[in-house]
Amino acid sequence: MQVVKAALASAVSWYVAVLLFPGARPYFAPLAAVLTVQVSVAQSLARGGQRILGVVGGIAVSLLLAHALGVSGWSVGVLLFVGMAGATLLGFGPQAVTQVAISALLILALKATPAYAAARLIDTIIGALTAIAVNAIVIPPDSTPLAVQESQRLARELGQELHDLARACEGDGAFATVLAHMRQMGEEVDRAKERVRAAREGLRYSPLLHRRQGRLRRVEEVMTRLERTAIEMRGMSRSFKTLNDAGEVGLLHLLREPLSSLGVAFSHYETLVRGDPVEAPDPVGQAVAAARAASLQAFRRLPPEPSPLAFREAGSILADLDKMAADLEESAAILSELTRQGRRPVRPGVART
Question: Which CATH class is domain 144-343?
Answer without folding.
Answer: mainly alpha
